[in-house]
Amino acid sequence: MKIAISCYPTHGGSGVVASELALQLANMGHEVHIIAYATPFRLRKFHPNILIHEVEVAAYPLFKYPPYALGLATKMAEVTLEHNLDIIHAHYAVPHATSAYLAKQILQPKPIKIITTLHGTDITLVGADSSFHRVIKFSIEQSDGVTAVSHYLKKRTMEEFGIGCDIQVIHNFIDIHRGDMSSTVCKKSQYAPEDEFILMHASNFRPVKRVTDVVRIFSRVRQAVPAKLLLVGEGPDRLLVQQVVKEMGLREHVHFLGQVDFIDDLLKCADVFLLPSEQESFGLAALEAMNCGVPVVGTHIGGIPEVVEHDKTGYLFPVGEIGPMAEAVIELLRNPDQLAAFRRNARQRAVQHFGIDAIMPQWMEFYERVLAA
Ligand code: GMT
């Protein structure tokens, strides 16, 4: 297969998923072309089967907003022609699916297939905005194949857009070797004394992630058991969170680690992962935690229950219920047998249901079906 994958190159989940898919396809011998405005951070290492094509948008005084979608469509058309591609796979509908549609029209009658993978905010936030609604519905329906990262997201998309085409659910996957504890290099002593626990959270610090809830949960936990909090990521709420940490007198107990390319090493030091989001179509961060044997305490919303099994690999509560979330963490930390069982369950669930072996065959079957149609 010769396939172009278009995605956001930043630390968001959609870019990570697209990059991991690119790596797996390349490892299988397929020719992968990445089309994005920069090299996705997980693809910075050279791979002979992955070619990176960066999109540049010319600056011009008339442009109040640089027309990225047009530059992207042009690049998609050029790369498709030059490398005789079979598929353009757009991750995140806005604007990738629309640019792919435009590229296909430019290239007519060349038979190129367009696949769109919906990740979440492209439907629930950006897509729900009336300024994009029609173009997103159109681009999804014009795709030759559409996937969603959870059953929840599929349902939301069908409801909100009245989509007439089929949407296949293919859950996100992880490389189970990254969670292998035998390759641990994390030094817990860097972040906490030996007798303290480590709680962790990773996100893009957007309001939907409710990172201030993370701090409030941690504050309650610390009143019961000694612990430190690792906060990974950057984003608009970072200053607010720092302020809350300061106000709650937690400065020496909370480590802000910024953006980290591979968080597995840090996760291997953690005892519990916190994900109290108010929106999450899948929760890749939760899966990455489970892969490293870290139970997740978070919210029972969106696609999270498809990943985290309540009372087995973690605990899920309604949004904002920081009291019960803190209690659940305290119970886990005070009960070593239960914590050990949850750790085992988490890793086992990640390996069995979300490993490459479980998910890649679904992708291959999907690509083959789209190509044959
Ligand atoms: O969560 C974000 O804000 C980033 C966003 C993205 O598109 O990069 O994440 C979405 O896609 C991830 C990968 O499929 C999912 O794990 C996240 O749950 C989803 N975020 C939301 O739905 C809020």
Give the gist of this structure.
The protein has 373 residues and is of the alpha/beta class.
CATH topology description of the largest domain:
Rossmann fold
Rounded mean pLDDT is 95
Count of DSSP H/I helices: 14
In CATH, the architecture of the largest domain is 3-Layer(aba) Sandwich
Strand content: 15-25%
Measured distance between first and last alpha carbons: 15 Å
Low-confidence stretches: none
What is the C-level CATH assignment of the largest domain? Alpha Beta
Overview features:
single chain, 373 residues, alpha/beta, Rossmann fold, 2 domains, 7-stranded parallel β-sheet, 6-stranded parallel β-sheet, 14 helices, 43% helix, 17% strand, globular, binds ligand GMT
